[in-house]
Design brief:
This protein has about 140 residues and is α+β, with helices and mostly antiparallel strands. It folds into 2 domains: about 1-100; about 105-135, no CATH class. The protein is about 70% helix and about 15% strand. The chain contains 2 helices and 4 strands. The protein has helices at about 1-25, 30-100, and strands spanning about 105-110, 115, 125, 130-135. A 4-stranded antiparallel β-sheet has the order 1-2-3-4, with no helix packed on it. Helix 1 (about 1-25) runs antiparallel to helix 2. The model has no long low-confidence stretch (mean pLDDT about 80). This is Colicin import membrane protein.
Length: about 140
């Protein structure tokens, strides 16, 4: 705002000096030309101030829009990260469950294969295809 006031003062001073030079050439009264020039300068200052205020509000709105967009993007990223983390946690839980069903102990041999005892007490061996074959 100080810049606008300084500009208005400088313009009015310039207008006053210019009007005295013009007045020397014409015989118009000094008071009317000074008043006219002062009104013109005041109008210019007002329009300049209005333009600057409009520009400032436009810039402020643009900054607000940009920050809200960035915040929305950040929220989406956080949600995506949470989903990824929960899915990874679920897969690791499944993997842990699968690994706990491991073979517990051996109980000798059967037809040249190691015999294993399952978690419920069943006895089996791994055949040549890699499948479990239970023993009665």
């Amino acid at each position: 705002m100080n810049l606008i006031k300084k500009t208005a003062i400088a313009l009015s001073l310039f207008a006053f000096v210019g009007s005295t030079a013009v007045l020397a050439q014409t015989k118009e009264p000094v008071k009317t030309t000074v008043k006219k020039d002062a009104k013109k300068v005041e109008q210019k200052a007002n329009t300049t101030a209005k333009k600057m205020d409009a520009k400032a509000t436009k810039d402020l709105k643009a900054v607000k829009m940009e920050t809200t967009k960035k915040a929305d993007v950040a929220k989406k990223d956080v949600k995506a990260t949470k989903k990824d983390m929960t899915s990874k946690a679920n897969t690791t839980k499944k993997e842990v469950k699968n690994t706990t069903v491991a073979k517990t102990s051996t109980a000798g041999t059967y037809n040249g294969h190691k015999v294993y005892v399952g978690p419920n007490g069943g006895k089996y061996y791994i055949n040549s295809n890699g499948n479990k074959t239970y023993i009665k």
